[in-house]
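assembly run, all chains below
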Amino acid sequence: MSNNQFKKGELYSFITGKASTAIGRRLQKNFKQDNIEITIEQWSVLYHLWKEDGMSQQELCDATFRDKPSITRLVDNLERIKLVKRNASKEDRRKNLIVLTTEGKELEEKCMQVANNTLNEALHGVTNGQIEIAKEVLQMVYDNLK
Amino acid sequence: MSNNQFKKGELYSFITGKASTAIGRRLQKNFKQDNIEITIEQWSVLYHLWKEDGMSQQELCDATFRDKPSITRLVDNLERIKLVKRNASKEDRRKNLIVLTTEGKELEEKCMQVANNTLNEALHGVTNGQIEIAKEVLQMVYDNLK
DNA sequence: GACATATAGTTGTTTATGCAACTAAACAAA
DNA sequence: TTTGTTTAGTTGCATAAACAACTATATGTC
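ok done. output:
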């Protein structure tokens, strides 16, 4: 089995995902440097709305790998800072459709630029081939635990 | 540059580290199933104390990639549930040496077994070669952002 | 139509994070 | 020994996560 592939220390850092933690922190810092006043969690919601405006909260749960209370509160905060609005669905009155405000839409370009730059910083010196394999492994891990 | 290596969707999941999130959640769930009543954050502190008992809080910060307030509170909670104790250092009165209680020591075997099993679940079907490359990439990302 | 069940979202509680401001001890230089 | 700087740790505050319990609407079945 794959039991002996990892020494303890390596196991730990694989589990805790120090690399993704580091990317998240750097992205947050880069947002701040560009005077973008949102958290990376808020960004992860906006990111999906930029691709498809008017998603329901449940759809945002699935897209962001977060549970319903998390999305409720992220949307609360995004609404408070006026980047999104909750619109009650006319087809299904249980649903809220989350739509970007003008201000929310305007943030896309700036944010995506910062995100792309951050990823380039993070991947400096890593080859395309290595990235492909890393992505495959992370996807397999995710699928194994789904 | 490495700007075109990622399509948007891939970029997102690389940044947010959904694989490591999934591992963390599964580990937490597996702890609970085995009636181990600790959080994965608490586990990450204990993990280092099991390797080297009596570390200072600052050393735990470095080892776990957490800041000082986080460690202060994790140690608070671990102390409250009686798994560790703060011992004032005699050489340097600013320092607390964090030592495992008997109960804290006894938890090691059970926890590490669960952690190993979780990792094996996560890596099912992933080859050693792929894992090596994934580890290299994650390490490079971490070093790039350090 | 009435009742059971599933789905969408909210609220409460505990734990954790990130940042800034703070205290106290150690160290260094004059 | 006084003064300034660095290091170790704590506290306050805002944001977020995980889980359980809850409300309200929709749907399926008899």
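Chain B touches chain A through 59 residues (CB under 8 Å).

The domain at 15-145 of chain B is CATH 1.10.10.10 (Arc Repressor Mutant, subunit A).

not gonna interpret more than that til we talk
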